[in-house]
Amino acid sequence: MERCLYIVPTPIGNLADITIRAREILASVDLIAAEDTRHSRKLLTHLDIDTPMCAYHEHVDNAITDRLVAQIVDGKSIALISDAGTPLVSDPGFRLVRAAQDAGCTVIPLPGPCAAIAALSASGLPTDRFAFEGFLPAKAGPRDERLRRLKLSDQTLVFYEAPHRIVDTLNAMLPIFGGEREVVMARELTKSFETIRRAPLGELAQWVSEDTNQQRGEHVLMVGPPPKATGSFDASVDTLLIRLGAELPPRKAAALVADIHGLKAREVYERLLELKD
Ligand code: SAM
Predict the structure, then answer these.
(1) CB-ligand 1 contact for 89 (6 Å cutoff)
(2) 80 CB under 6 A from ligand 1?
(3) CA neighbours within 13 Å on the CB side: how many for 237?
(4) What three-state secondary structure class fits 82?
(5) How far apart are the C-alpha atoms of 127 and 261, rounded to whole Å?
(6) How is residue 5 annotated by DSSP?
(7) Do residues 236 and 154 lie in contact, with contact meaning Cβ atoms separated by under 8 Å?
(8) What pTM was computed for the model?
């Protein structure tokens, strides 16, 4: 076995989703660095693996990162796992990967379960371009500010959300994205109560508020891109218009955007007035 750091995804619900390679690596490395050793012990017992474990969570200090890297440099192989899914995707591991690379160690990623990718693949939303937004800020002010900045994105947006915040988040999205925006909620993926529903935001928010079962468990929320603007205005034109329109007189902003995008200044000016409304 090569001395290196392996990034090993683990199941997000259904234990059968562990890959053959993940199992082999977990059984053969010298040490498994786990986000929560007690949680991961259950998975390892199920897999009949007794590789030693150590804790590697969000709050570990630099000394622990350095110690793990030193072990790899000394010729040991280590696997990093999180509680569920792919490490580093809204999970710990970023500092460890960088430190290992900086020390000249090889970092080998294994493909495997990830809630965002599983949800996206069955969402029915465009997947040619998407933005993973992870968890929104917990406080309403920064959360709404983030949502406003994403409003005109022309990519599918993927969010993770905690069960106690799902209703609040949907209600916060409503006035910003509008009730007609297409959204998908993917809940309890790979588990008994797996639910995937695509609907206009207004309808989905009402359904989740009224049915407390839909608030339980783990959720991925996806927001489809806004419908294509009429004429030649796409979201990138609108975004630039809004930014320049906030800094410059409207005619000047419109002229600049028209010049950059090869559009008619008069039409861009009218679009800016529309957006300001
Ligand atoms: N690293 C994980 C991954 O690869 O998906 C994500 C870890 S993050 C701390 C946990 C969040 O992922 C949950 O709050 C939820 O939003 C999402 N999640 C994890 N498992 C899920 C599942 N089975 N169904 C839906 N969402 C899930």
Answers:
(1) yes
(2) no
(3) 25
(4) coil
(5) 26
(6) E
(7) yes
(8) 0.86
User: Residue 219, SS3?
Assistant: strand
Strands 31-34 and 53-55: parallel
Closest CA to 117 of 146, 91, 92, 85: 85
Relative to the CA of 162, which ligand 1 atom is closest?
Answer: 14
Neighbours of 41 (CB within 10 A): 14
Q: What is the DSSP letter of 74?
A: T
**Residues 183-217: tens digit of each pLDDT:** 999 999 999 999 999 999 999 999 999 999 999 99
135 Cα to the center of ligand 1, angstroms:
10
218 Cβ closer than 6 Å to some ligand 1 atom: yes
Which of 75, 70, 58, 60 lies closest to 99 in space, CA to CA?
A: 70
Put residue 100 in one of left, alpha, beta given phi > 0 → left and psi -120 to 50 → alpha. Answer: alpha
Name the residue of 35, 36, 90 whose CB sits within 8 Å of the most ligand 1 atoms, as the mutation to test its pocket.
90
Between the two ends of the chain, the Cα-to-Cα distance in Å is 63
31 bridge partner residues: 78
Give residue-wise pLDDT tens across range 221-250: 999 999 875 555 677 788 888 888 889 999
State both tokens at 66: 């350095």
